[in-house]
Each structure stands twice: as structure tokens, then as C-alpha cells.
Write a structure and sequence with these properties.
The complex is a heterodimer of chains A (581) and B (435). Chain A is mainly alpha-helical. Chain A has 24 helices and 4 strands. Chain A has 2 domains: 239 residues, Orthogonal Bundle (MetI-like fold), CATH 1.10.3720; 226 residues, MetI-like fold, CATH 1.10.3720. In chain A, strand 3 and strand 4 form a beta hairpin. Chain A is globular and about 65 Å long. By secondary structure, chain B is α/β, with parallel strands linked by helices. Chain B has 3 domains: 249 residues, P-loop containing nucleotide triphosphate hydrolases (Rossmann fold), CATH 3.40.50; 66 residues, Winged helix-like DNA-binding domain superfamily/Winged helix DNA-binding domain (Arc Repressor Mutant, subunit A, Orthogonal Bundle), CATH 1.10.10; 65 residues, no CATH class. Chain B is built from 15 helices and 16 strands. In chain B, the strands form 4 sheets. Chain B has a 6-stranded mixed β-sheet, with helices on both faces. In chain B, strand 12 and strand 13 form a beta hairpin. In chain B, helix 8 crosses helix 11 and helix 11 packs antiparallel against helix 12. The relative contact order of chain B is 0.10. The chains are: A mainly alpha (581), B alpha/beta (435). Chains A and B meet through helix 7, helix 8 and helix 13 of A and strand 6, helix 2 and helix 3 of B.
């Protein structure tokens, strides 16, 4: 019987002997290494703007395209992980850095993701002249921006929330800052981080699809991938190809879910601080394989050795700097440094504001600014109406499902899956319908904005209802509470916090989706709805940089205000008054 | 003076907590203390007396604002090698197994893997955890978890062991066993540790374990008394000498300084001002305790250690209740005894409505904060005031957290006495009751 905590390294022979799990593990590992190597070679292929990349609608090419898409996703996820670890650690460790980094993150979060793509693509192309790499980087960067911010926020929250006693224990037993980062802070943040990674990837699929077909200065570049495949299918009005793409995406998401996130979620259980026994997750087959197959034992001990070596090196590099000395910094000196730092921050912000004002004034003029503000209002109206409609539809359904725990357990994974599925794959279907039935574009394009994000509302409402103690329902039925009163006094207050959480996510997603949803195509037919999303999309196509910037800034301001004035308040209200514990 | 038998020596240690807004609050006021080789010192005190802060200053986890702490003659400037700590909350890393947790300190010191494993297994064996090496903390009971905490401390062969209420999160039976095991290791010299400091709020525990008891007083924290315990070991907790010391400690801990009948407090008369840190006593428990004292078998006068046993109260909870009863003028305490005042007896005999009336009278008479709030509400047009106003006043004397706690206690008492009303949603105190 093998002990889980890893035997001493001397026990090589028995560990090396492969078992039957290795029969699955070995081909899987070798296969993915070969495939990834091949796909990354393709990324650096030579390319000049204007050249057409051959994309074929033949479904036989879909596996290849899928692989390229997955690789982009994985690279973006790795970049997001590295970025968020560094950024969050810095923000949590330094009080001064925190003052700058956290507000910046808050703003970055509200910048529309496709806006990043429009702005950065030229820079990336210049970075890798004559190669496809620049375009790949731009696409990966766009996916990165859809994933990194919420992971960073979650890490930062976890880092500052590490329990005081664990911190003290780490210091008391002389863990170096490097050791306590990897042994205390990162493990503590792990469950939340993995949950957020999963959410990030769910959101990411949407932007993978949207960012593979890039337009630069009026030229279309289609990177081989599922997103480009569907873009081509739209151009050529091939409904069957759209269907294949949807099918391929389905398989991809399933694989990601099974091979990456189910195992990660189950594995992350051990990092939870409070003792959970209730909702222990059954270890999925892939995790069992990882834990049983000897191949991974070998890999793990190599990894352990490397980590120990790194840790030793870090100790040697920073000997004996255990906390207390640094806390004693002269108080007066620290206050001066604070003043200077705050002054610098204010000066920087003022300079940026003046610069933006001057730029907008010289390039587009005040009249256009007002026009864009109005367009923003149109999009705002759409978002508000859509969230309200989605609430009307999904709250009753969510409650109905949530009251039936067994059904809920079966429905939740499906809803999660729907949330991950890139809704833009369905846009062509909607456009065909609008064209066929001559529907009003302004109205009927709108639902596309919430197509992918409404699931967050349903998902959270189900979770909120599940969490409602059954006692409350017994009391309600015992008192003979009427249907109306039951909703008003019991259910609505009880699920309110969960609903707000879901609605915040849904509304954020809808703002983002407006750029692709307010202007949709089918072959040569283009449907345009009035709104700021369409404005940004059109400016991007023309390569009109000042207007892209203006549109993004205005959209950003709307999202910030909307979040501050509505969602944050509702959130606080929910936290203060309606929490069950 | 590298070796004068003193392991740890604290000279004139002051600690001020300072935040950006408040000018700074004194938590420790000129504390002098030393730990000698071969002794166990227990530190007792009410919650908020700064005893935990003091332990953290000794540990090097937080620097003193003034004064100096030395370990074997060297100034402590951060956690020193040779000092280990056991935490009230265990502070185990939940993602590491028992073995992983115990090895942690050795790993941090760069001890080679084989030696690490061997030493950790020895410590685990010593503390009676063998068989649980591969368990995760969440699989263990509280008592077993704290054993891991002890093993983690002992594995680094500490010179000095700092124990921060290590048994108070455990049930009585478990605490007793673990305490006994620890004491055995110490008495039989099976650990290289030369000195132990135990922070506790359990008086019997302190008398059983310690060679010397230090009692901390509050606001700001200072050493109020020092009691040597020279009873032979193993100690018999039923012996009269033992009980006498227990009584003595109770007597000191339950008297509000400056309120001892017939005697001035050690530090002169302390007046209870608006910013006094009210003990967070619940009305239900106050009434229950007063009823218990007034009824047979006590019939108005009770021995505190007896009361603790018969009413199943924790020492710490008792201090809070007794202080509240004294402040409100319902009871008096001296020499380890508590007796009900005439007002207190009147309260115990009264019916519900009269009780509320008496409580209200006592609040206005003896609790300046209650009188102050009532006066403000009487004077203001509309007879209401935001809680923020009173919090700001309290924060002149207390930390933000303490100010909240005190106001919460005040609101509880005030609501019971129907002295004023409080609207949670708006955060407003007023004289109106909801219509």
C-alpha cells in the first residue's frame, strides 16, 4: 500500500514500476507533447499582411483548428496565471504599490476586451515583422485580457485575507518570504484561484472566437482556428459549417472541463482552510489517473527537487531578512515617502487626463463625444432591459430547480457548460432568422448580448436557492404563508445576494458582448443596431484609432459608473442585510 | 551578561497601536519581566489586557514601541531561533499532512531531507501522534490538531516555548489530557526546552502548571500582581493550599482596580469614564448569574471558584459577567467571594417590568456612557442621533474594533432597559420605539 504523502526518494525501484494507469497516462502525455510542439511551430510561420491564409470549411480540418485554438487558450491562461501571481503579490505586499495597482486593475477590468485587441494589434505586428507570431500574440493577448483581471483580483483578495495566525506561524518557524509565498499564500489562495480560472476560461472561449479573425487597416487576417472557421462560414453563408464549428467547440470545452477543471477543483479541496465534509467532490477519473500512475510520481518528485533547489537558492540570495527589522523604518521618513508617492500618483493622473482631453479635442471634437455618449446610453438601455428580462425568466426557473436538489445537481454542470459556450457561434443563426422574418434590427439584435451571460444568473439563483435552509421552508408552510408572501418574504430576500452576484457577471459580459453583438453579418448582409458597441466595431474595421480610443473610453466610463452606482450598492446591501449567516 | 540564568528579559516594554487616523493607543505600559531557566510562567489577565500582545512582543512577532526584549542577552529583533510558539487556533497549514506540518520548521531552516524526516517522526512519536503521520489536519479532532501544534514546536528543539492559550479551544477533558502530557514531558526532561511561558485565561490551569503566575491588568496592559506557586509536583487540585492560591488569583482578577472595598487600588482610583471599555456581558447571562447568586445554596453570597463549577461558566466569561455586575452596582467582590448588593437582591426578586426599571436606573446612575447617550438624545431635536457620533467619541479612548464592541454592548443593555432604541438599518439611536 503506497502512502500518499510521497515516499522518500530512495524508494525509486518500486515507484518506477509502471502500473496499468500508466497505460493510459503515457500515450496521453506523449501525444499532447507532440501535438503542442507541432502547433507551436505553426504559430511562428512567416506571414506578410495581405497574404491570405488558407482556411478551409472542410470539417476534416476542424481538429487541427481546434488544437490551434486550444493552444492559444492555454498560452493565454499560463500568461494570466503568471501575471496575476506577480501583480497580486506586489499589490498585497507593498502599501504604496497597492494604491496604484488596485484602481488600475479596476479600470482595466471595465475596458472592453475586444478594445484591447483593436489597440494592441499594430504593436504586436511591429514586434514580429514578417511572421504570423505578431497576430498570434495579439489574439493571445486579447484572450489574456479576458482572463487575467478577475484571477488577479481573487489572488489579491486571498493574499490579504491569509489568516493572521498562519502568517505568525510562518514567521515563527522562519519561513523565508519566498517560502511563505509558495507554502502559505499561494496554497491559501488556491481554491478561489481555481474557481476564478474556470470562470475566466468560460469567458475566454467567447473571445477566442472573436479574436482569431482580426482586421488591421481594413485587411482581414484569419488565424487558423475555430473562430476563423466560423468567420469564413459566415462570409460564405454556410450554415452546415456553422453547425460543425458548434459541434467542435462543444467537444473542446468538454475536454477542457474533463481534463483540466474537474481534476483541479477536486484537488483544490485540500487547500480549503475550514473543514468541509458536506460537499466533498468525488475525485474525477482523470485526477485518479494522475494520482495513481507512476509516471506522474516520477514527474512530481523531479518537480519537488526543483522546487527545493529554487527555495535553497532564494534563501541564499536573501539571507535572514525575517520581517521585524523592516517594520522599524523611521516613521517620519515613511511619511515623507508617502507624501512624495501620493504626489507622483496625482500628478500622473492629472497628466493623463489632460492628455486625453487634448487628444480627443484635436482628433474628433466635442460634438462627436456627445454623440458617442448618446450611443452609450442606447447600449445602457439594452443592458438594463436585458438583465431585467433575464431576471424575470430565470429567477422563477432557477428557484424551481433549486428547490429540487437532486435535479439541481444534474442541471448545474449543464448550466456551467452553457455559460462557457461561446454564444457568438450562434449569432449567424440569429441573423438568418432576423433576415428571413424581417424583424426589427434594433430590438432583435439585443438578445445576442445576453445570450452567453444569462446563464450566470440562472446558475447563481440555483445555488442561492440550494443554500436556503429547509427549516425556513418548513416554517413558511407551517404558517400557511400564501404564494405571494412566500416569494416576497422568503425566497426573494434569500436569493438576493446570489442573484446580485450573477447579475453583476451577466451585465459585465453583456457590455463586452455589445461590440460583437450590435453589428452582425451573414454573407454580404450586415445588420447594425445603434449603440456604442457598433461604433467601436466600425471604427476598428476602418482602423480609425482616435475613434476606437474614444469609444473604448466612453464605454469604460459607462461600465465603471454602472458598477459603482448600481451593482456595488446592491452588493453592499446584500452583504449587510440579507446574508443568511 | 550572556548567562545569568535569565532566558528572556523584557525591560520597560511599551506598545502603542497607531493607525493613520487615531493618535495611538497604549496597549502595554512599561512591562518588566524575565523568564528564568527551568521555570514555567503563566500569564493571566482579562481579555484585552494585552497579554497576547506581550507574548507576541517576546516572540519577536511585533516590535515594542519602547523598551527592549532580550533572549539570552541578545536583543530580539524578529522571531529568534530557539523560541517556538504554540497557537490557540493551532495555526496548522491545512494543505500539509501532519508530517508536512511538523517538518515545516526544519524545512525552512534547510535541514536535509533524511534528517528532517527522522526528527519529525521522533517528535510525532513523542507527542503521541504516531499512526497519524499522513493525516490532514481537517481529519483530526481539536486535541489531535493541537498535538500537531506541539510537535511542530518541539521538533525544532526550542530553548523557550511560548504557549498562547493552547488549551482554550479544546473541551475540558481533552485539554486536561494534553496539559498532563505536556507537563510530563517537561518534568521528565524529555524535551530540551529550558523555559515555558503560558498565556491562559483558566485560573486552575495556571495554578496547576506554573511556578510563577503573572497577572495582567487592563487599559493599558500592565503587570498587576505576581504570585509564586511553590506547591510540590504532582499537584493535587483538591488540596487546601491549591484552593487557597486559586482563591487568591480569583480575588485579584475579579476586583475592578480602585473599587476594592476598604482599600485603594494598586494604581490609585480609576474612574469609569465615558470611554470605559464595558465588558461585553449578555443580559441573559447577567440575569442568570445574579439569580443564581441570590438563590440557594448561595443565598446572596458565593465563592467564585465554586460558582464557576456549579454554573458551568468559563473563567473568562465569569470575569466579564462579574465586572458588569460590579459596574452596574448589582454585586460586590472581595477575597474571591461575590455577594449581591441590596439593589442586586431587589433586582433578583422583582418581576420582568420592574427589573427593566431597576436596570435602567442603574445604567443611568453608574454607566457614564449610558447617561451620556440618553442626555444627547433628550437634548437633540427629533431625539435621535447617528451611532457614528458615539463611535467617534469612543474612538478617542478605544480602538475602532473595541469602540464597536462597547457600543454594541451599550445598545444591548439600553434596549433591554428601554432606555433608548436603535435602528440597525439606518444606524441611528433614538428615543422612539417602532410604531
Amino acid at each position: 500500500m503506497q502512502q500518499r504523502w510521497g515516499l522518500p526518494i530512495v524508494a525509486w525501484p518500486s515507484r518506477l514500476r509502471p502500473n496499468y494507469w500508466d497505460g493510459i497516462a503515457l500515450p496521453l502525455v506523449l501525444g499532447s507533447v507532440v501535438l503542442l510542439a507541432w502547433a507551436s511551430r505553426q504559430m511562428g510561420a512567416p506571414y506578410r499582411l495581405g497574404q491570405t491564409l488558407a482556411i478551409s470549411l472542410d470539417p476534416r480540418y476542424l481538429p487541427e483548428y481546434g488544437l490551434r485554438t486550444v493552444l492559444r487558450m492555454a498560452l493565454a491562461l499560463a500568461a494570466s496565471l503568471a501575471f496575476s501571481l506577480a501583480y497580486a503579490a506586489f499589490a498585497a505586499k507593498s502599501r504604496r504599490a497597492e494604491k496604484l495597482l488596485i484602481p488600475v486593475l479596476d479600470i482595466l477590468q471595465s475596458v472592453p476586451i475586444l478594445g484591447f485587441l483593436s489597440i494592441t494589434v499594430t504593436g504586436f505586428i511591429a514586434l514580429f515583422p514578417g511572421s504570423l507570431m505578431g497576430y498570434e500574440c495579439a489574439a493571445i493577448f486579447a484572450i489574456f485580457t479576458s482572463q487575467a483581471w478577475n484571477m488577479t483580483f481573487s489572488l489579491y483578495q486571498s493574499f490579504i485575507g491569509v489568516p493572521q495566525d498562519l502568517r505568525e506561524a510562518a514567521r515563527m518557524y522562519h519561513l523565508s518570504p519566498w517560502q511563505s509565498f509558495w507554502q502559505l499564500e499561494v496554497p491559501f489562495a488556491m481554491p478561489q484561484l481555481i474557481w476564478n480560472m474556470m470562470m475566466s476560461v468560460s469567458g475566454g472561449w467567447f473571445f477566442v472566437v472573436a479574436s482569431e479573425a482580426i482586421s488591421v487597416n481594413g485587411q482581414d487576417v484569419k488565424l487558423p482556428g475555430i473562430g476563423s472557421y466560423i468567420a469564413l462560414a459566415i462570409e460564405q453563408r454556410d450554415l452546415a459549417a456553422v453547425g460543425y464549428a458548434i459541434l467542435a467547440m462543444l467537444v473542446l470545452i468538454l475536454i477542457y472541463d474533463q481534463l483540466l477543471f474537474r481534476p483541479l477543483l477536486a484537488w483544490a479541496q485540500r487547500f480549503k482552510v475550514e473543514a468541509v465534509t458536506q460537499d466533498e467532490i468525488e475525485p474525477p477519473w482523470f485526477l485518479i489517473m494522475l494520482q495513481r500512475a507512476r509516471l506522474f510520481d516520477v514527474m512530481r518528485s523531479v518537480f519537488d527537487e526543483a522546487a527545493a533547489l529554487l527555495s535553497r537558492l532564494a534563501r541564499r540570495a536573501a539571507p535572514r531578512r525575517a520581517g521585524a527589522h523592516r517594520l522599524r523604518f523611521g516613521a517620519a521618513g515613511a511619511r515623507w515617502a508617502d507624501l512624495v508617492w501620493n504626489g507622483l500618483l496625482i500628478a500622473g493622473v492629472a497628466y493623463a487626463l489632460i492628455d486625453i482631453a487634448r487628444f480627443v479635442d484635436s482628433e474628433v471634437g466635442l460634438r462627436e463625444v456627445l454623440h458617442v455618449l448618446l450611443l452609450g446610453l442606447c447600449t445602457l438601455a439594452r443592458v438594463v432591459v436585458l438583465i431585467a428580462l433575464a431576471a424575470l425568466i430565470w429567477v422563477p426557473i432557477g428557484v424551481w430547480i433549486g428547490l429540487r436538489p437532486r435535479l439541481a445537481r444534474r442541471v448545474q454542470p449543464i448550466v456551467q457548460f452553457l455559460a462557457a459556450f461561446p454564444a457568438n457561434l450562434f449569432f449567424p443563426v440569429a441573423v438568418v432568422a432576423i433576415l428571413r422574418f424581417h424583424l426589427n434590427v434594433e430590438i432583435w439584435v439585443s438578445p445576442l448580448m445576453i445570450l452567453g451571460t444569462q446563464w450566470y444568473i440562472l446558475f447563481n439563483v440555483i445555488a442561492g436557492t440550494l443554500a436556503l435552509p429547509t427549516d425556513y421552508q418548513f416554517v413558511a408552510s407551517n404558517l400557511g404563508v400564501s404564494r405571494f408572501l412566500w416569494w416576497r418574504r422568503l425566497i426573494l430576500p434569500a436569493i438576493f445576494p446570489a442573484f446580485v452576484t450573477g447579475a453583476v457577471t451577466a451585465s459585465g459580459g453583456s457590455w463586452n458582448a455589445s461590440i460583437v453583438a450590435e453589428i452582425v453579418r451573414w454573407g454580404n448582409d450586415t445588420l447594425v443596431a445603434t449603440g456604442i458597441g457598433a461604433y467601436i466595431a466600425e471604427a476598428t474595421e476602418k482602423g480609425d484609432f482616435p475613434r476606437i480610443a474614444l469609444g473604448i473610453c466612453v464605454l469604460c466610463v459607462y461600465v465603471l459608473l454602472f458598477n459603482r452606482l448600481l451593482w456595488r450598492r446592491l452588493y453592499l446591501l446584500a452583504e449587510e442585510r440579507l446574508r443568511l449567516d | 551578561m550572556p548567562d545569568d540564568g535569565r532566558l528572556i528579559c523584557a525591560e520597560k516594554v511599551c506598545k502603542t497601536y497607531q493607525t493613520a487616523e487615531t493618535p495611538g493607543r497604549l496597549v502595554l505600559d512599561h512591562v518588566d519581566f524575565s523568564l528564568h531557566e527551568g521555570e514555567i510562567v503563566a500569564i493571566l489577565g482579562k481579555s484585552g489586557s494585552g497579554k497576547s500582545t506581550f507574548l507576541r512582543v517576546l516572540a519577536g512577532l511585533t516590535p515594542p514601541t519602547e523598551g527592549r526584549v532580550a533572549y539570552r542577552g541578545h536583543t530580539v529583533e524578529g522571531p529568534a531561533y530557539g523560541i517556538a510558539m504554540v497557537f490557540q487556533t493551532f495555526a496548522l497549514f491545512p494543505w500539509l499532512t501532519v508530517l508536512g506540518n511538523v517538518e515545516l520548521g526544519l524545512e525552512a531552516q534547510g535541514v536535509p531531507r533524511a534528517e528532517r524526516r527522522q526528527r519529525a517522526l521522533k517528535a510525532i512519536d513523542l507527542i503521541g501522534l504516531d499512526g497519524f503521520e499522513s493525516a490532514y489536519p481537517k481529519e483530526l479532532s481539536g486535541g489531535m490538531r493541537q498535538r500537531v501544534g506541539f510537535a511542530r514546536a518541539l521538533v525544532v528543539n526550542p530553548d523557550v516555548l511560548l504557549l498562547d492559550e493552547p488549551f482554550s479551544a479544546l473541551d475540558v477533558l481533552t485539554a486536561e489530557t494534553l496539559r498532563g502530557d505536556m507537563l510530563d514531558l517537561w518534568l521528565e526532561r524529555r524535551v530540551p526546552t529550558k523555559g515555558i511561558i503560558l498565556v491562559s485565561h483558566n485560573i486552575e490551569e495556571a495554578v496547576e502548571v506554573a511556578d510563577r503566575i503573572i497577572i495582567f491588568g487592563s487599559d493599558p496592559g500592565h503587570i498587576r500582581a505576581e504570585i509564586p506557586v511553590s506547591l510540590p509536583r504532582p499537584r493535587d487540585i483538591t488540596s487546601p493550599r491549591f484552593q487557597q492560591i486559586v482563591d487568591e488569583v480569583y480575588a485579584i482578577l475579579t476586583t475592578v482596580p480602585g473599587r476594592e472595598p476598604g482599600r485603594r487600588g494598586l494604581r490609585g482610583v480609576e474612574t469609569v469614564g465615558v470611554g470605559y471599555r464595558l465588558p461585553a456581558a449578555s443580559i441573559q447571562q447577567l440575569v442568570g448569574l445574579l439569580d443564581a447568586i441570590s438563590a440557594p445554596p448561595y443565598s446572596g453570597r458565593a465563592d467564585l471558584p465554586h460558582l464557576v463549577e456549579s454554573e458551568h461558566i468559563e473563567d473568562e466569561a465569569l470575569f466579564v459577567l462579574v465586572e458588569a455586575l460590579q459596574l452596574l452596582g448589582f454585586a460586590q467582590v472581595a477575597g474571591g467571594d461575590i455577594w449581591a448588593t441590596p439593589v442586586g437582591r431587589g433586582f433578583a426578586e422583582a418581576d420582568l417590568q420592574t427589573r427593566k426599571q431597576i436596570f435602567a436606573d442603574q445604567l443611568r446612575r453608574s454607566i457614564p456612557l449610558a447617561a451620556h447617550i440618553r442626555k444627547v438624545l433628550d437634548e437633540r431635536p427629533g431625539h435621535s442621533a447617528p451611532e457614528a457620533r458615539f463611535l467617534a467619541e469612543l474612538e478617542d479612548h478605544l480602538s475602532e474594533e473595541e469602540a464597536h464592541e462597547v457600543l454594541e454592548t451599550m445598545i444591548n443593555w439600553g434596549r433591554y432597559a428601554e432606555l433608548f432604541a436603535y435602528d440597525y438599518d439606518r444606524g441611528v439611536l433614538s428615543l422612539e420605539n417602532p410604531t
